[in-house]
Fold:
Amino acid sequence: MGETQPFSSWLACIRGCEGRFSVTGAQYRCPQCGGLLDVKHDLDALRSHSAKQWRDLFLRRAAEAPWPMGGGVWSKKEWVLPEIDTENIVSFGEGATPLVPVERLGRRLGVEDLWVKMCGTSHSGSFKDLGMTVLVSAVKQRIVDGNTVRAVICASSGDTSAALASYGAAAGIPTIVILPKGKISDAQLAQPLACGAIVLGVDTDFDGCMEIVRDLAEDPAFYLANSMNALRLEGQKTVGVEIAQQFAWEPPDWIVLPCGNLGNVSAIAKGFSLMQTLGLIDRVPRIAAVQAESANPLYRSFLSDFRRFEPVHAAPTQASAIRIGNPVSYERAVRALQQTNGVVVQASEQDLADASAIADRVGLYTCPQTGVALAGLARLVAKGTVRGSDQVVVVSTAHGLKFTSFKVGDPTVAHPFASPRFGNRPLDVRGDSDAVRRTIGKQLARSTHSETAFHPEPSLPPNQGAPSGGA
Structure:
């Protein structure tokens, strides 16, 4: 199976309007209805190979293929974006991230068979690399084909800007990042700056930044890199493919993930759906989307069975990367949740801090967004929605090193968030062995690594967050 096979993809309206659009064009919405676009693949061409042939190909590439086909995303090139010439692929070997069992954490959350997909080990430290390698490669192909691209542009709550700046720098394509001023971590701000991006801190929230980017992207010379661009999801869907592959093509019962702009929900569901269509798996897992209660428009909509959707003004949250009140991929996410019999739950600030701290005590060093997912899982276990015997995968979306202040804080500075009940602090000790020995003995006696069960706070009200004016 080489690249001479007649595999193809195109953009089409998710609402079913007529029309096909080039995957390397600058098209983000349907010109007929304004709906989002989705990447469609020639399924007849993909079905020309058996499930076993696909499995064998992916396994062989992972073991033997040179860059870039040996990576997590581009080892599935035919399923992602077959039109891209290999020499135009911009890759740092993203994907192929570990899927690790966390038995001790599972015991505390009430799940016997718990796993964490460590997407934060990717190049720029988040799952956003998976979509950005596809998008920037398509832009490079677009330029090679003779089209003008002055810059690639994004709004970001942190991780998207890091991924775009890194891949844009590798491709030699100018990147512009529009951030909500003062609302991302220092580590996240440092990444696009280090990679040479034009970084604008704007006095608004993420939703306001997104509006600005949409306006700028009306000019096709400014290529839009946010997840309303369907190409991002093609890379991100490989998270689901990797999970199935790492479980020997036996999907888990649940995928639990934090969500903000909602692209990852639909992307992961899309990956599992394609595998089922092509016969590589016989069922799809249920998806649990978890939001911070400070930014919970999907959760509020879920309570009405998705009959209503109202954006909210996202309030401050420790999970700053998902502080989004008007998610672009809402319609895609609803479709994905309905197809997978999925659920939506929210997590309080106390619970996300506690859940992240508990995960760190088993060595994970999680980002606050992963804390949201873990707290949501605990709530679903408490409700009986997730059974203790279910096999569950939590998607860890970013590396904890991006959120050091979330971990250590500054006890001398007042802040609006609750401190984790399971947090840890350095101890000041006199400079002699006896004092050190006594302190160590006291701490060991306190069993700082005890594994008491984690219990989420009482059920939260559904209407946190003020209605938005339509940001």
